[in-house]
Amino acid sequence: MRSKVAGIVFIVGSVYYILAEAISAAFFNASIFSTYIFHTISELGIPNGNSPLFWLMNSAFILIGLALIFGNFYKFKDCIVKNKVIFYILTLITGIGVIIVGLIHGGNPFTLGYHMLGAMMAILGGNILLILVSRSMQEFGIYQKITLVLGIIGLIAFWIMFFSMENVYMPVFERLSVYTMIIWSFLTGVYILRN
């Protein structure tokens, strides 16, 4: 029963995120192509005329953060055989970071620092978490290998994004570094349900 609940939470959280971003992008004050290529995810969550569905994007941040914390602590922790303390710490850093991003938008210069901190916690912490998970389970099968590759891709994308903040294509690398965790969340839900 716990496996079913945790698996569903992971899957619902990841699917909700993808749909919420797509819908928010469709209503953003730019073409959907331009939004995905030239506008950051955070811009979709700023309450202004450019993003009328800002609340939907912010709810997705909060939900995926809660799904990660709940799923990892409720059931997925049973799959981790070593590095459990670090696993718990990185789970909290990542989950709380995403929730901060959802609660504190980046459009206010007085709160931008907190938003950026939350984003760093979520993206950097999340991709390090994936690498840790891949090396902390009993086996190193296909699920673990995919998790490791996702974590590595996410970290590479993060560093490219970090050192090219002024680049017009920076949002592409931001999305790559975030989508690794969304994909992992979906795959983990399926993995838990199947095992």
Question: Helices and strands in order, then pairings?
Answer:
Elements: H1 2-26, H2 32-38, H3 41-44, H4 54-74, H5 84-103, H6 112-134, H7 142-162, H8 170-194
Helix content: over 70%
The computed structural class is mainly alpha
Mean pLDDT: 95
Q: How is the biggest beta sheet arranged?
A: none
* Gross morphology: globular
Can you walk me through this structure?
Helix content is 75%, strand content 0%. The longest helix is centred in the N-terminal third of the chain and has 25 residues, at 2-26. With 195 residues, it is mostly helical. It is globular, with a radius of gyration of 16 Å. The model has no long low-confidence stretch (mean pLDDT 95). Helix 1 (2-26) runs antiparallel to helix 4 (54-74) and helix 5 runs antiparallel to helix 6.
Compact description:
Helix content is 75%, strand content 0%.
Characteristic terms for this protein:
195 residues; mainly alpha; 0% strand
